[in-house]
Amino acid sequence: MNHQLERELNEFFTSLKEDGLYKEERIIEGAQGREISVGGKAVLNFCANNYLGLSDDRRVIEAAQDTMKLFGFGLSSVRFICGTQTLHKQLEQAISTYLRTEDTILFSSCYDANAALFEPLLGAEDAVISDELNHASIIDGIRLSKAQRFRYRHSDMNELEKALEASASARRRLIVTDGVFSMDGDVAKLREICALAQSHDALVAVDDSHATGYLGETGRGSVELCGVEGQVDLITTTFGKACGGASGGCISGRKLLIDLYRQRARPYLFSNTLAPAICGGTLQVLSILKEDHSLRKRTLANADHFRNLLKTAGFDLIDATTAIVAVMVYEEAKAVEFAEKLLDEGIYVIGFSYPVVPRGKARIRVQLSAAHTKKDIERAAGAFISVGRTMGIII
């Protein structure tokens, strides 16, 4: 490394720290769960994507262990060489059945699934139309394609329609949106989006990573919640959040499109097969979700309870009805300080700031889980209120 680069990087990191934008990695000493150990201290965890509390569920762990004994630790191969086991086909079928789609293709993460989503389907003569708050993986996936790019203001259906009109000459058009927006916790207007897509002959893709497993009457996500099953062409989602919290993701949807990805999706063709333990654990999760809806209901009830406690106390919350509660702080340094003081109170949360959210929109993102008890939630709310008053965030 030359001296100039070293100096520039040190100055960059110093400025990040001064602006409250430097991201520290806290170390968890043990398993993910409702209560974790950080720095030798037991704290309640309110910032994991562990929506159904299955990350440390013994049934899931044992299924992963049993699968590894039968199918090995890894495949050392990509799917089309010698990396496809009966296990992978079973999981793809199980996901398709669960999501009520025609077919599914597995990836090592939903980030990879979104990286694969656009380039095989869309060329220079095509167009992709994206919500401005879509996840970074969608943005990066779009960048890998040569399609014309249109972006509409968050959940603004008038702007979406204008983008559809402006792209009318394109051969193919794909509208893409998060199902649940991870930083705000709100749900996409999928009914309106699908109606516009139908009237303008466009395809629809939904990243349902923050919804699969707990939203909708049977937990099938925002697509089920909004009543648009069968109208969404492609669903990407992860197994790394509500569905056990490990890793892995997929694209699920119309069979002809899935066949295209098997032939042309680079993250699928050139990346190792999903590990057997992940497949076995995820199959167990899908079995649990099929039989037991109590976890889903508890997650949403817990989120409602926490949200109501903070609203009553006067916090500024983004309006949402999911397991994500975004507590607005606005100032970056203050959000970091707020999270540190909450950790001192035994509540583990993170302050989110640029570039994860826009500048001046710093927040604490609280994520509720089925594993949280009423006592946990009220303790967390009490800490928020106490620290919030001390810092002048609420009166």
Put the structure in a nutshell.
With 395 residues, the chain is of the alpha/beta class. It is built from 15 helices and 13 strands.
What does this structure look like?
The relative contact order is 0.16. It is globular and about 55 Å long. The protein has helices at 3-18, 58-71, 79-82, 86-99, 110-117, 136-143, 157-166, 190-199, 222-225, 255-264, 266-269, 276-291, 294-313, 332-344, 374-390; strands at 35-38, 41-45, 103-107, 127-131, 148-152, 173-178, 203-207, 234-238, 249-253, 324-330, 347-348, 351-352, 362-367. Helix content is 43%, strand content 16%. The protein is built from 15 helices and 13 strands.
